[in-house]
Write a structure and sequence with these properties.
The protein has 274 residues and is α/β, with parallel strands linked by helices. The protein has nine helices and eight strands. The chain folds into three domains: 72 residues; 122 residues, Trna Endonuclease, Chain: A, domain 1, CATH 3.40.1350; 44 residues, no CATH class. Helices cover 43% and strands 14% of the residues. The protein is elongated. The N terminus is likely disordered.
């Protein structure tokens, strides 16, 4: 079951706004108060309440601006620190959730961080964009695989939330039963390796450039050197974005590679990698 989300106080709503907007609002209220000081000869209860409310709103705007600015810096730092799968798995569950939220923001989605999931589960994020709504659960599980129970529960929540799609993002992997359950349903399962590749593409770092491994054997050296050369990413035929090389996990082409749109599931453009 999904937890009820609190609509939030005025301060909560102000914090969701860009820091520069609440800063401008606070400065605007401060200037207004100075240009329109209360007249000592017309002091009544209504005027006192009005001035008091304006002053409180001014301080709230300044406070929300500071909190929002700090949050933006933290999100930027968290996203920059996600360099590979190891650094992603070293994150706390809160940092992992922040990373996923920032990843989708950079793809143009409006992201609502519900705070309803926490370390144990539930809806962590709500995505809106391209006329769709998706609910997201973030699983920072370093050792345990995400099982079918989690996927089944989120699929049930999707209807309750009137969402178009379920997205589950894990720093690890999924059981085969979970993968089988998701087949043919509006459920997107993103494992740790796919997430790391996705983030590298958003940063503009070719996936091949991040390959790190042991020195290849003499017979395989030329093959590795060839595979390490960055490929020219094709353009999505539907939206024009630079595509990402993916590996099919199900269907007749399971195990094969193809070019997929980085804006999936909003855009489902694909190009053969052959």
């Amino acid at each position: 079951m999904s937890r009820k989300r609190n609509n939030g106080s005025l301060m909560d709503l102000l914090i969701l706004l860009p820091w520069w907007l609440t800063l401008a609002a606070g400065l605007g209220i401060m200037v207004w108060r100075r240009l329109h000081p209360a007249s000592a000869s017309h002091v009544d209860i209504q005027s006192v309440v009005y001035v008091f409310c304006l002053q409180i709103l001014q301080y709230m705007c300044f406070g929300a601006s500071a909190v929002s600015a700090i949050g933006a810096l933290m999100r930027k730092h968290t996203f920059a620190s996600a360099k590979d799968i190891e650094s992603i798995r070293a994150m706390s569950w809160r940092e992992f959730e922040t990373l996923i939220a920032e990843t989708y923001r950079r793809q143009g989605f409006a992201v609502e961080e519900t705070g309803g999931g926490g370390a144990d589960g539930g809806i962590d994020l709500i995505l809106r964009g391209k006329g769709q709504k998706a609910i997201v659960q973030c699983k920072q599980w370093r050792q345990r695989q995400v099982g079918v129970k989690v996927v089944r529960e989120m699929y049930g929540v999707m209807s309750h939330e009137h969402a178009d799609r379920v997205v589950i993002v894990s720093s690890g992997t999924y059981t085969q039963e979970a993968i089988d359950f998701a087949k043919g349903k509006p459920i997107l399962l993103i494992d740790g390796q796919d997430l790391a590749k996705y983030i590298r593409e958003i940063k503009g770092t070719p996936a091949a450039a991040a390959i790190v491994g042991a020195e290849p054997a003499a017979g395989n050296k030329s093959q590795q050197e060839s595979s390490a050369k960055p490929q020219a990413n094709p353009i999505c035929p539907k939206c024009g974005s630079a595509m990402i090389l993916r590996t099919a996990k199900r269907g007749a082409n399971a195990g094969g590679q193809f070019w997929g749109c980085p804006k999936y599931p909003a855009c489902k453009g694909t190009v053969s990698a052959g």
